[in-house]
Fold N-(5'-phosphoribosyl)anthranilate isomerase.
Amino acid sequence: MKLKVCGMKYNPKEVAAIAPDYMGFIFYDKSPRNLVGVIPTITRKVSKVGVFVNASIEEILKKVSLHGLQMVQLHGQEPPELCERISNLNIKVIKVFGIADSFDFSVLKPYEDVCDYYLFDTKGKNPGGNGYTFDWEVLENYPSTKPYFLSGGIGLENIDEVLTFLYRPEAKYCYAIDVNSRFETKPGKKDIEKLIAFKKRIDDEVSRR
């Protein structure tokens, strides 16, 4: 089980030191976690993910080049054609879908061959970082074999629910846990002690499986 820490802004080096698998950097000027400036040098063992919301391919590729991003996460209404253009440049693509009380999984079909991962987040007023979970039972109807990231309101306080979910059939293709706002002292500044505790619980559970 992989771990992604998203919404990095103020203390990325501290987060990188605890070795999550992925770190997400948001390039969306309406987000309080919007990154301005250059990502500091971090270990290559951590993959840098650029998070975009309805950005042009020119803007996306500019950020990929500037920051040395390994992956692109598309958090808006990006069409499959955009995913395909990015994927054809050998850049891994995560396509995000917001889920409320239900979800029409047929919308995934056009993206099956043009992205590497899905990410399921809580549908809310913001594109991400809303701080609460959706009903994970919705994923019982997941029709794909594509690995996905589970996101939305995941924190240290609901780690037991996360671990229970990972043993359920609908978690078969759950590739990574994505955390953000529940691990912050302010938007973009992560609580390192909470992240360490969360990562340890996940790692301990995986080692027992």
